[in-house]
């Protein structure tokens, strides 16, 4: 330390001054708890000794600031201790066991839930970030204090963003807007939600923030008298009615003004509801009484009343909202609530904290269903990025409130569909959904729900999730459940395909069959699995079916093992299987009938149908992709990856119709499309998709169809029927040329 620096400027003195300010806020805790917090501070101060923040202050001032925010939320001693220690494990080499022994297992669990994972374990920053969020959210589902400390941490980081390199502003601010602000909203921390949004906006778009700040200041000066008059008029009117009320004006946040301007393409002058009035009443019945008097004082704007007391928001928020035409014809939003509702509205989960219950929050007000859904999604989604994609959907602030036939109310994200509702009731209801009715009328499953809808779901035991549902569901719970089902189904089908491919590859080596499941043959499987690095026979078969392993390579490992057990290759079988018309392909022929499921895909570049000559490509992790022989895409793949091609052929009687692409060139005119559709119907071809070129000013138009046909003979008959239709100039199949 330089000679001229005073003792008061030392890192320890600065840290102690910050901690003294925190100690002053701990009056709500017992003395023993305050002493434990002091011990945690001393431990953290030693752990961070020598570390400095960008602004030159000792690093420990950051954990103290985080703990101070937690104290403002009146969190318990364990949470405050964890806040002080939250960076100790990550930055200072302190272990979870150290914290558990020195303080308590609870504190150690909280800190562990907050600690980011070691970056060396991940290939990309994005993957590391997704895994960190997954860990944090799962810890939050078990103990909500984790996310409260994390939000306090993010609040302080955003408040001191100016000390960070400007290159980091964009990433951290975007992350705050997309992740932390929505989580704060979901937990009812409205004050933190608004501050995080405004701070992120300030650093993400500093020029726009500056312009709006000046515009809001000018508007505030112009409207100050108006707001004061409204407060006086409302207070007087309610007092005359014998109602004691606390009335205060409030201003829209800059970020919410910016969003409204951006979404609705408005100028600042066109945003009418910059200001609102909050009225806090002594009791619930007083809120509704005050509403009646307000509607007598000012004229209500039609369609702008919301009763969030009778139907609370998903985060526990309750208030009456009404927009009224105030003095000078200015629209003002009024929020009417009780003191308890006001506390919840500002502090959310923190307002429900129960110290005597061991640090568990009042989960009825928090939406325990969402916290539980985090665990459900994790059980079905082990991939961190996929988990986070699913959870982000559920963080959307807007919600719709709908009812079951028995009158139970359910909150779902804006845009949620009938299928989302089914999965919100129970995952088994969603899995077996076949149809639904809304307000007594049958509707498609993709129907978006509106406030007040009554939904009835019809299920069937044999029904399963449809892959097309992923195109319209909104909730993470529904999305993760559908993906889990499809993944399980695909693995089962890939396993069957892998067994078939390995059997055929083994026959090409002269061995008639795979080893069985008997105890006598198990040593062969054990030896093979050691060679391939798989844990189970099923895992190996799945990898072969998905193209992650080449069946011929596995067969070459298997043959010596079978030979050692006394089996000998059959010379006749060897010559018949190996030297066939498919001698350039690496494995025996797979027969297809259309029932193979997700393990087999029919390429969309050439859309094979029965009667076409085929080749099959075992894509890495994609399963078997079937192409028409001569398809340009297949030929390019064969030139660079020939060992992944296998022979495929059609079964004698395919079990379904197949898609084919055709182009129909027509003369423009009235009723042309109807005549083409009629010709397709007459030829018994189903229209699956239709597209057309935008050539309304031209004499001709090209119509692009994907149709369902039985085989190539049926396709030829369809094309002949089309060519005979009036106005059709040309009809041909679309296939990528070789």
Description of the molecule:
- The protein is an alpha+beta fold.
- The protein contains 28 helices and 22 strands.
- The protein has a 5-stranded mixed β-sheet.
- Strand 10 and strand 11 form a beta hairpin.
- It is globular.
- The N terminus is likely disordered.
Structural class by secondary-structure content: alpha+beta
Mean pLDDT: 79
Assembly type of the chains comes to: single chain
Would you report the number of β strands?
22
Tell me, what's the shape? globular
CATH superfamily of the largest domain: Hypothetical protein af1432
Helix content: 40-55%
Distance between the termini: 78 Å
Strand content: 15-25%
| Count, helices | 28
Query: Under the CATH scheme, which class of the largest domain?
Result: Mainly Alpha
| Integer count of domains | 4
Query: What is the fold-level CATH name, i.e. the topology of the largest domain?
Result: Hypothetical protein af1432
Radius of gyration: 34 Å
Unreliable spans: 1-5, 117-123, 353-367, 580-587
CATH architecture of the largest domain: Orthogonal Bundle
